[in-house]
Amino acid sequence: MAGRNFLFVPGPTNVPDRILRAMHRAMEDHRSSAFPELPTGLFRDLNKLFKTSAGQAFIFPASGTGAWEAALVNTLSPGDRVLAPRYGQFGHLWIELAQRHGLRVDVLEVEWGEGAPPDRIEEILTADRQHEIKGVLIVHNETATGVTSDVAAVRRAVDAARHPALLYVDGVSAIASIDFRMDEWNVDLAISGSQKGLMLPAGLGILCASPRALAAREQAKCTRAFFDLGEMIKSNATGYFPYTPAVLMLHGLRESLDMLFEEGLENVFARHQRLGEGVRAAVRAWGLKLCAKAPKWYSNTVSAIMAPEGTSAGDVIDVAFRRYNLALGAGLGRMAGKLFRIGHMGDLNELMLLGALAGTEMALRDAGIQVTPGAGVAAAEESYRSTAAPLAARPSPDAQQPAAGAKPSRAKVAT
Fold it and tell me: Is the whole-model pTM more than 0.85?
């Protein structure tokens, strides 16, 4: 099919040309004396991304799932209890991973479409007077339902219960797109991956650990080998890795961080909020509903849109892909077939999203879901126009012309 595929799944996201160029290089010796300059700078700048001065970042040639595992096995022992609210497919998968490592998971069932419930977490932790619960597992941005939880409120709940549990946060689809404050929120283990807001291909699992989490490693008894932080700590101290790193991905990560800091993290977060508001305006104009039950849970990186009763979200996704070269995200787990997802994170702007919304409108109509042609696109346009930054003042064309009768400049021209 002619033209570019419109990739609007909620990860992997579009990889900018700058990052592709940074990764397009010959392989190099990852044990040379020059190599440490690259990872040393990455570790320093990842701390800026996570907003921590005390934490330590680790980069694994893995995915976010690998970072999940690294967070758990380096801080816990088989039989330890953890509390995990389940409000989406990724929380569900993290729970399963913990159980496979012999952890006892107290699953706190939450309606899919809602976020982590701080009040219920506080109640459970307050009742745990023996402090048997060793950790609380929170998915910051649940991609399967388009829900963002209030991590700061969860931390306040843990503190109000006066409980020493470690706070684990999956920030895979939040970090580098939605505000995240590791030190301010006292997050002990923060998890990210390369293929979302970092705008890279999948392949890097990134973990940031607090001093308290690193201290817990000394007592942890879960089996670990590839994901052992002890080996990483020793090698990373001199700018190396205990095994062959994903060198080209590291160069891509260097470029990604440069791009994020050039734009400014607060500007990145504001851009994602603004773009997300436009998508939500389109959904309202279509007369459809988000999976997220209330505005306080709306995600700025992905919108999960419910198909009307009696229709199939799978048909919308299939038509969009086969007819219009538009990739939309599918419903996962218990939401399979019930919703489709528009990812709006990473390297994107208004016109890219308007194209995706136009394709979605056509696919909705082709799948038998009646929406007014152009309604969603128009609503998003108005949202973006009304929130656009004012144009910088520019001199008028007349001001740039020499006055009548003026002599031409005698400035020398370099040859």
Answer: yes
